């Protein structure tokens, strides 16, 4: 169980889960490389926790196999898998003190002298003075650390984390994110982290799999997912995207599209679908990529940039940035985030403005999907 | 409103609204306690005091009883009836152990495995209460009747050989033996064991089972290290709710037993209602109470439930 050397990849091959007629997870193939910090991101009910529980052995897959390294563990009960879980509610044993909670896994494997290891682990999660307390005497953050220590002490091949930070307040959550990341780097164990918090997934994980309705929509490094979403769900769920419905004017290496008479350009390489002349395309751009100038300064905008004219409908001052909502014929309610470096007093609601951005920062998505996919789920989880 | 009239008047009405509701609120718990306290005073404390005084009286029914502080009654009662005392504790203890053995799996099943059948099963557990205690116990007389199918079956599988070796039955009879009394006690007090067990098992978060399994505990170890320790409050209250009334019970011994299976409850009952020796009856009651109280205290200390959440 301490063997977490080469070949410890977690491999899911065609696993799915049905509950009666409901399909929680559609057949899924996934390889989680050894030693990586992998996040399963999605709204509640997307199948991410079910996937995690199938790796843990707490849920039996309807089809497919789970392998750890070269070993098929699909038929193994949880207590025989070299995998440990940090549960969402921590599930600490209320009748045992912190020491016994952490020692539980070691004792079950027949290890007699646990003191040294437990003390080291208590040290790692910085709970020194709480060794003999009961779980209910600790705060949420401390309980969470006990849950992590209790799992990690077994040196599992894979540590599964089921929304472990969900019950903590924002500040503590940020702190624990860094803490977990530090521990992961220190111990080098594969972490599979389930979360609905896209920011958490992006800050912590090397690889993020975005799940929606029982399927993995897209998988990749956080920056890759953010910059190149391949579906509207990913574009909307991960941060915010301005999605513009446009028709393709000319396709080539450089795609020219038009929306409400405004021509926009984007590189074909950044389209997740092959654009065809006369076809439709959803053109996306992130709010922070857009610059904003008052209409009368349109001449200052460089040639070759994508330009849209509109009217500021709303602005909110956030501190580091100001978030504008701009209405235009091209698209209602375009979002623009402007860094508060020099605040232009003319940028107030009602002002005519020109939005412009580098065509390289534009991405294209298949128009045959729901443009609002993933939008509400973000608000729900916020 | 004149400016001069305002200052002296203003503070006066301002203060009472702050204090009066607070005082009234403080009294609320006492008002809520009152009916219960009155009830206990009239129907528990007063009879107890009356019995205590009866237990140190001497006299006869014809001449009347006087308080003579005759504590010897206690000693006489104890030396004369200690076999019945011991028998009561033995029968009640056996019945409690049987209730625990029978009730725990059932409570476990209802709490964790019954799913949508849970409520139905709970109703079935308390269903016997819909008939009178007496009728149910009389029914056992028929069930355990000599030559009946139950006794026949027990005889065939050799069960009665085991029980008669244990001294709980004689020959191929069950009725009028200790086994019959223990069976009746077990049956009658089983729901009092199952319900507290169910309540404390049901409160256990099933994710703790998952966590234990995840931490290499086999299902059996999970039960031993997690489920059972967490159900201790239910085990303690269930055993107390079974043992205490069972040790004072006389109906089962009266209907299912014989003169050889008389429990202390039967002695007290006959002292009161047949022999009319009230002081001895009262003394026996107090001895029983004291014995049970001591045993329960030791038991609770040993079980260490105050350590549980």
Automatic annotation (TrEMBL), chain A:
Membrane-traversing stretches: none
Lineage, opening ranks: Bacteria, Bacillati, Actinomycetota, Actinomycetes, Kitasatosporales
A Pfam family this chain is assigned to: TOBE_2
Organism field: Streptomyces antimicrobicus
Superkingdom, taxonomy of origin: Bacteria
A single MF term (Gene Ontology): ATP binding
NCBIfam families, per the entry: potA
Annotated EC: 7.6.2.11
Protein name: Spermidine/putrescine import ATP-binding protein PotA
Keywords tagged on the record: ATP-binding, Cell membrane, Membrane, Nucleotide-binding, Translocase, Transport
Domain ABC transporter, first and last residues per copy: 10-238
Subunit text: The complex is composed of two ATP-binding proteins (PotA), two transmembrane proteins (PotB and PotC) and a solute-binding protein (PotD).
PROSITE patterns in the cross-refs: ABC_TRANSPORTER_1 (PS00211), ABC_TRANSPORTER_2 (PS50893)
Function text: Part of the ABC transporter complex PotABCD involved in spermidine/putrescine import. Responsible for energy coupling to the transport system.
Protein family (similarity comment): Belongs to the ABC transporter superfamily. Spermidine/putrescine importer (TC 3.A.1.11.1) family.
Reactions it catalyzes: ATP + H2O + polyamine-[polyamine-binding protein]Side 1 = ADP + phosphate + polyamineSide 2 + [polyamine-binding protein]Side 1
From TrEMBL, chain B:
Domain ABC transmembrane type-1: 85-299
CDD domains: TM_PBP2 (cd06261)
Entry's localization field: Cell membrane
Entry keyword set: Cell membrane, Membrane, Transmembrane, Transmembrane helix, Transport
Family under the similarity heading: Belongs to the binding-protein-dependent transport system permease family. CysTW subfamily.
Record field: transmembrane: 30-50, 89-112, 119-139, 175-198, 281-300
Protein name: ABC transporter permease
InterPro entries: MetI-like, MetI-like_sf
Topology class, membrane: Multi-pass membrane protein
Superkingdom: Bacteria
């Amino acid at each position: 169980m301490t063997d977490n050397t080469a070949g410890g990849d977690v491999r899911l091959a065609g696993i799915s889960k049905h509950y009666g007629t409901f399909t929680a997870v559609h057949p899924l193939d996934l390889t989680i490389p050894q030693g990586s910090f992998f996040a399963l991101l999605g709204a509640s009910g997307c199948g991410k926790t079910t996937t995690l529980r199938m790796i843990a052995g707490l849920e039996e897959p309807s089809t497919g196999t789970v392998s750890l390294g070269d070993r098929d563990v699909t038929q193994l009960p949880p207590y025989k898998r070299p995998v440990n879980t940090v549960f969402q509610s921590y599930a600490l044993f209320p009748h045992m003190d912190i020491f016994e909670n952490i020692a539980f896994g070691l004792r079950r494997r027949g290890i007699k002298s646990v003191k040294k290891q437990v003390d080291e682990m208590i040290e790692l999660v910085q709970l020194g003075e709480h060794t003999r307390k009961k779980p209910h005497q600790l705060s949420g953050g401390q309980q969470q650390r006990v849950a992590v220590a209790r799992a990690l002490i077994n040196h599992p091949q894979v540590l599964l984390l089921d929304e472990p930070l969900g019950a903590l307040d924002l500040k503590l959550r940020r702190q624990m994110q860094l803490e977990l990341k530090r521990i992961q780097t220190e111990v080098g164990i594969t972490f599979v982290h389930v979360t609905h918090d896209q920011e958490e997934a992006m800050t912590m994980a090397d690889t993020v799999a975005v799940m929606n309705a029982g399927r993995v929509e897209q998988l990749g490094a956080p920056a890759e997912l953010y910059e190149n979403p391949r579906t509207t769900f990913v574009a909307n769920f991960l941060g915010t995207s301005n999605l513009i419905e446009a028709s393709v004017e000319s396709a080539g290496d450089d795609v020219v599209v038009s929306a409400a008479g405004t021509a926009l350009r984007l590189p074909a390489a950044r389209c997740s679908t092959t654009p065809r002349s006369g076809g439709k395309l959803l053109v996306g751009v992130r709010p922070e990529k857009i610059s904003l100038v008052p209409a009368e300064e349109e001449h200052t905008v460089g040639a070759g940039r994508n330009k849209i004219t509109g009217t500021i409908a709303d602005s909110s001052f956030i501190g580091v940035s100001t978030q504008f909502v701009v209405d235009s014929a091209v698209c209602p309610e375009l979002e623009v985030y402007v860094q508060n470096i020099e605040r232009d007093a003319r940028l107030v609601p009602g002002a005519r403005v020109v939005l412009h951005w580098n065509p390289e920062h534009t991405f294209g998505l298949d128009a045959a999907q729901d443009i609002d996919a993933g939008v509400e789920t973000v608000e729900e989880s916020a | 409103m004149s400016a001069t009239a305002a200052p002296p008047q203003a503070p006066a009405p301002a203060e009472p609204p702050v204090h009066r509701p607070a005082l009234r609120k403080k009294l609320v718990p006492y008002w809520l306690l009152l009916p219960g306290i009155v009830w206990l005073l009239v129907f528990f404390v007063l009879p107890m005091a009356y019995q205590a005084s009866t237990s140190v009286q001497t006299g006869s029914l014809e001449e009347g009883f006087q308080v003579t502080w005759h504590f010897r009654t206690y000693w006489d009662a104890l030396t004369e009836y200690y076999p019945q005392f011991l028998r009561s504790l033995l029968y009640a203890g056996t019945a409690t152990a049987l209730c625990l053995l029978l009730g725990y799996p059932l409570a476990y099943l209802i709490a964790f495995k019954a799913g949508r059948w849970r409520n139905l099963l709970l109703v079935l557990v308390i269903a016997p209460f819909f008939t009178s205690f007496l009728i149910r116990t009389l029914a056992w007389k028929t069930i355990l009747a000599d030559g009946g199918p139950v006794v026949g079956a027990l005889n065939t599988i050799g069960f009665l050989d085991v029980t008669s070796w244990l001294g709980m039955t004689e020959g191929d009879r069950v009725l009028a033996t200790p086994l019959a009394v223990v069976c009746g006690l077990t049956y009658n007090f089983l729901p009092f064991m199952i319900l507290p067990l169910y309540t404390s098992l049901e409160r256990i978060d099933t994710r703790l089972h998952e966590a234990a399994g995840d931490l290499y505990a086999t299902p059996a170890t999970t039960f031993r290290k997690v489920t059972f320790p967490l159900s201790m409050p239910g085990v303690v209250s269930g055993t107390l709710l079974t043992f205490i009334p069972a040790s004072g019970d006389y109906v089962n011994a009266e209907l299912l037993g014989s003169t050889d299976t008389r429990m202390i409850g039967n002695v007290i009952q006959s002292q009161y209602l047949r022999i009319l020796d009230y002081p001895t009856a009262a003394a026996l009651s107090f001895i029983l109470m004291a014995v049970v109280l001591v045993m329960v205290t030791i038991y609770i200390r040993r079980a260490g439930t105050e350590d549980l959440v």
